[in-house]
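Q: I'm writing up a methods section and want to include an example of the input and output format. Could you take the sequence below and give the corresponding predicted structure tokens, formatted cleanly so I can copy it straight into the document?
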Amino acid sequence: MRGFCLEVNGEYACFTRPEMKVERVSYDVITPSAARAIFEAVLWKPAISWHVKKIEVLSPIRWISVRRNEVGKVASPRSEGIFIEEERQQRAGLFLRDVNYRLYAEFAFTPSVDAKSDETEAKYAAMFERRAKNGQCFNQPYLGCREFSCSFKLIDPSIDISTPIAETRNLGWMLYDMDLSDPKNIKPLFFRAQMSNGTIIIPDRNSDEVRG
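A: Here is the clean output for your methods example:
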């Protein structure tokens, strides 16, 4: 596996707790699945899969309460469209503000049987490094909700030293990712998240710490 570190920051973030049915309430920090999505926004290919290994929280955890309008209906190609005035819903949200993280992730290279000879782990590593250094992405990375876009930069932790916040707290059960192995039975995976001096170690997907 090849490992990389991205430093990401944004004005607002919301990593929604799935148990909150009506109001959007964020987890205290970014979830592994949201972190993985940022790496995939920079580079996604069928032959690689990203695995988040560690999260460092660089800014104090701050909150903001916002009431906003949302559309309570999903558009369908078979429908005649959505009348926003009829489907508008006002919801309260408890979001994070002024977030700054360092995300550590590795990608596993699993080429297909008919892969070309130049399809190598080194090729994809160089591709990601080049794209991340130049700020390139296939889609705009965001912090939980698409309207909360974030900036990112590739970091060498051995050179660009930064100290996480000096805070330790038990974050409880946190969404790890979605289990898509059975398309007819998609289910969430959770793990007990512990932040120690601003650092959260992410367990492997197949470990006993991750539960469905």
